[in-house]
C-alpha cells in the first residue's frame, strides 16, 4: 500500500513535467510566430507567460525534494526524481529562450523581410523534437530518446545555413542589417533550444539505463 502511494506521487510529478513541456511547445511556437509577424502584443503575452513556466519548475522541484526527504527512494526511483529535476531545468531554459525571442520582437523597430523559410523550418523541427522527447519520457522509450538526441544535429546545420545566409544578405543589403541581425539571434536561441531538447533525451536514457549518451560518446572518441 505504501509503495502504491509512493508510485502515485512520482507519477503525479511526471505528469506535471509533461504539462510543463507542453507549455514550452506552445510558447516556442507562438514566440516565433509573433517575431515573424512583428506582433508586439502577442510577444508581450509570451513574456508574461514565462512566469507560469518558471513557477511550474519551482513547484515540481519542491515536490521532488519532499518525496526524496520523506520516502528515501531506492536507486531506480532516485534516478527518476533526479531526471525530473534535470528535465524541468532544461524546460525552464527553453521557456527563457522563447521569452528572449519575444523580447527581440518587442524591441524591434524593423519589419520582417520576406524570407522566413529557415526560421519556420527550425521551429517546426524543434516542435517535433520536443513532442517526441516528452513522449519518450512518458513512455520510458529509450530508443526514441536516443533518436531525439541525434536529431539535434539538423538544427545545428539549419542554424549554420541561416547564419551564412544572413551574413550574405547583410553584405548585399546593408540597410537590412538590423532585421538580419535579429534573425540571427532568433536562430541562435532556436539552436540552443535544440541542445536543451537533446540533453533531455540524454537524461531520459540515464533514467532508464543508468548510463549517459554523452559518456558513451566520450568513451567512443577516447578509444578510437
Outline of the structure:
The protein is mostly helical and 224 residues long.
Descriptive tags:
single chain, 224 residues, mainly alpha, Methane Monooxygenase Hydroxylase, Chain G, domain 1, 7 helices, 88% helix
Describe the structure.
The chain has 224 residues and is an all-alpha fold. It has a single domain, classed as Up-down Bundle (Methane Monooxygenase Hydroxylase, Chain G, domain 1). It has seven helices and no strands. Helix 1 packs antiparallel against helix 4, helix 2 runs antiparallel to helix 3 and helix 4 runs antiparallel to helix 5. It is elongated. It starts with a helix and ends with a helix. The C terminus is likely disordered.
Topology:
Blueprint: H1 2-37, H2 40-71, H3 75-107, H4 117-139, H5 142-172, H6 177-209, H7 213-222
CATH topology: Methane Monooxygenase Hydroxylase, Chain G, domain 1
Quickly name the level 1 CATH class: Mainly Alpha
Instruction: Provide the low-confidence segments as ranges.
Output: 218-224
- Quick one: overall form? elongated
Mean pLDDT: 90
CATH architecture: Up-down Bundle
What's the structural domain tally?
Answer: 1
Count of distinct strands: 0
Q: Helix amount, in percent?
A: over 70%
Q: How would a textbook summarize the main sheet? A: none
Distance between the termini: 50 Å
* The CATH H-level homologous superfamily: Phosphate transport system protein phou homolog 2, domain 2
Taking Cα atoms only, what radius of gyration do you get, to the nearest Å? 19 Å
The sequence of SSEs as H and E is: HHHHHHH
Number of helices: 7
Kindly name the structural category: mainly alpha
Amino acid at each position: 500500500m505504501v509503495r502504491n502511494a509512493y508510485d502515485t506521487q512520482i507519477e503525479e510529478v511526471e505528469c506535471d513535467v509533461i504539462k510543463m513541456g507542453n507549455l514550452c511547445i506552445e510558447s516556442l511556437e507562438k514566440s516565433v510566430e509573433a517575431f515573424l509577424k512583428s506582433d508586439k502584443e502577442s510577444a508581450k503575452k509570451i513574456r508574461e507567460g514565462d512566469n507560469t513556466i518558471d513557477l511550474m519548475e519551482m513547484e515540481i522541484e519542491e515536490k521532488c525534494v519532499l518525496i526524496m526527504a520523506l520516502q528515501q527512494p531506492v536507486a531506480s526511483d532516485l534516478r527518476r526524481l533526479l531526471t525530473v529535476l534535470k528535465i524541468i531545468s532544461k524546460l525552464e531554459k527553453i521557456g527563457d529562450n522563447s521569452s528572449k525571442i519575444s523580447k527581440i520582437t518587442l524591441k524591434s523597430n524593423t519589419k520582417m523581410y520576406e524570407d522566413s523559410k529557415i526560421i519556420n523550418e527550425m521551429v517546426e523541427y524543434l516542435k517535433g523534437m520536443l513532442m517526441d522527447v516528452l513522449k519518450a519520457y512518458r513512455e520510458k522509450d529509450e530508443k526514441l530518446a536516443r533518436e531525439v538526441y541525434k536529431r539535434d544535429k539538423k538544427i545545428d546545420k539549419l542554424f549554420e545555413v541561416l547564419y551564412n545566409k544572413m551574413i550574405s544578405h547583410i553584405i548585399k543589403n546593408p540597410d537590412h542589417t538590423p532585421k538580419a541581425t535579429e534573425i540571427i539571434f532568433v536562430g541562435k536561441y532556436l539552436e540552443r533550444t535544440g541542445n536543451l531538447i537533446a540533453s533531455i533525451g540524454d537524461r531520459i536514457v540515464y533514467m532508464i539505463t543508468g548510463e549517459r549518451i554523452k559518456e558513451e560518446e566520450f568513451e567512443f572518441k577516447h578509444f578510437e
